[in-house]
Design a protein that fits this description.
3 helices, 2 domains, two-stranded parallel ribbon, Chitinase A, domain 3, five-stranded mixed β-sheet, alpha/beta, Helix Hairpins
Length: 159
């Protein structure tokens, strides 16, 4: 099975490293303590606290492995390499939406860094994919689940 490339901004890479550090340190110790305490309740075959703690441990280990794999294969987009000439990962693209007669800014990030609340969209999303490689002044049409949307790129800057 071929691993797909994971693209991360430097900020996204650092966030994953911090999460990994927390999971391997304080969180792992917390779960181990829960298992220890639950064992003291007696018969583990009918001990829901023990089962819950073991399930949490399994989820924790899976997430640790997932992050380690992502960090291992990640391609980090260096802030210095981010060009403001074309839309790409690590750029903040402001577009004019013809339908709604308004400007919207999208931060283009790797798929693991998407944050809708901050308008950070994936380079693999329909809008992100359509904007990639385009310059200021370009008009871009995007097929979205809601139908065809037309944008004009107003500005491109670093995230």
């Amino acid at each position: 099975m071929e691993e797909r490339e994971i693209i991360l901004t430097a900020e996204g890479f650092n966030k994953l490293e911090e999460e990994l550090k927390t999971l391997k340190g304080p969180k792992k110790m917390e779960v181990a303590e829960r298992i220890k305490v639950a064992r003291e309740f007696g018969d583990i075959s009918e001990n829901s606290e023990y089962d819950d703690a073991k399930n949490e441990q399994a989820l924790l280990e899976a997430r640790i492995q997932e992050i380690e794999n992502m960090l291992r294969i990640a391609k980090v987009v260096d802030d210095d390499d981010v060009s403001t000439r074309k839309a790409g990962v690590g750029t903040l693209v402001t577009v004019y939406d013809y339908e709604f007669d308004e400007e919207i800014s999208y931060g283009i990030v790797g798929a693991t860094e998407v944050d809708i609340a901050e308008n950070k969209i994936s380079n693999e999303s329909p809008v992100g994919k359509a904007l990639m490689g385009h310059k200021k002044g370009d008009e871009v049409e995007v097929e979205t689940p809601g139908g065809m949307v037309k944008y004009k790129i107003v500005s491109i800057q670093r995230l």
